TrEMBL record:
Similarity annotation: Belongs to the TAF9 family. CENP-S/MHF1 subfamily.
Coiled coil: none
Family annotation (PANTHER family): CENTROMERE PROTEIN S, CORTISTATIN
UniProt-recorded Gene Ontology molecular function terms: chromatin binding; DNA binding; protein heterodimerization activity
Pfam name, any one: CENP-S
Residue ranges, annotated region (Disordered): 98-128
One GO cellular component term noted in the UniProt record for this chain: FANCM-MHF complex
Organismal lineage: Eukaryota, Metazoa, Chordata, Craniata, Vertebrata
SUPFAM superfamilies associated with the record: Histone-fold
Protein name as annotated: Centromere protein S
The keyword DNA repair appears for this protein: yes
A GO BP annotation: replication fork processing
Species, as recorded: Culter alburnus
InterPro entries reported in the protein's UniProt record: CENP-S/Mhf1, Histone-fold
Keywords: DNA damage, DNA repair, DNA-binding
Length: 128
């Protein structure tokens, strides 16, 4: 088995484990049981859907003549699933807001440092 195939198998195992954990929690909450075959089917479906998403993301970025996948590519990929698109849109807006707040905070801190540096320079000039 080559390295790519081994990595794919590890990813599949991780997806299967995660789906199994989610199913156990949901089954416990609903007082139902979920068969191992059902968990395997859900895991395989999720893995295949992720593969489709990955290929779509690569295609969208390539179409835009970019090597990097952007948020807009992700939004475009999710456009067929309203709930997923809305969730991604909401998270995108939250990230943009957080990034804006961080930029403003950095700008304020830089201004404070510059002000302190100027005060220190003035004190040094007065002492000379």
């Amino acid at each position: 088995m080559d390295e790519d195939e081994a990595q794919k198998q590890r990813l599949k195992a991780a997806v299967h484990y995660t789906v199994g954990s989610l199913c156990q929690h949901i089954a416990a909450d609903c007082e139902k049981q979920i068969t191992k075959q059902t968990i395997a089917a859900i895991a395989e479906t999720a893995f295949r859907q992720c593969d489709i998403f990955a290929k779509d993301l690569e295609a969208f970025a390539r179409h835009a003549k970019r090597n990097t996948v952007t948020v807009d590519d992700v939004k475009l990929t999710a456009r067929r699933t309203t709930a997923l698109h809305n969730y991604i849109q909401q998270k995108s807006e939250e990230l943009a807001l957080n990034n804006q707040e961080l930029k403003e905070k950095r700008k304020r801190n830089a201004a404070k440092r510059k002000s302190k540096d100027l005060e220190a320079e003035e004190e040094n000039e007065v002492e000379d």
